[in-house]
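Entry 12.
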Amino acid sequence: MQPSTGLRQRELCKKLGLDYRLLATQAKEQGISTHAYIQQLTGWILRNELYYPPEKKERR
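Predicted 3D structure (tokens):
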């Protein structure tokens, strides 16, 4: 279940214990945006400048 409100980038980093500045540097080294890098690294989905946890797939 997704929270009703998403998290801003720095809030997500704080929640997950990630260093925002380090992530920004790593993203730049890879030639991608910080948004895309954080999404790729964490699986959290960016929508309208807010991050939401990945949706859980149902097991069958």
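Annotation: The first strand starts at residue 45 and ends at 47. The mean pLDDT is 88.
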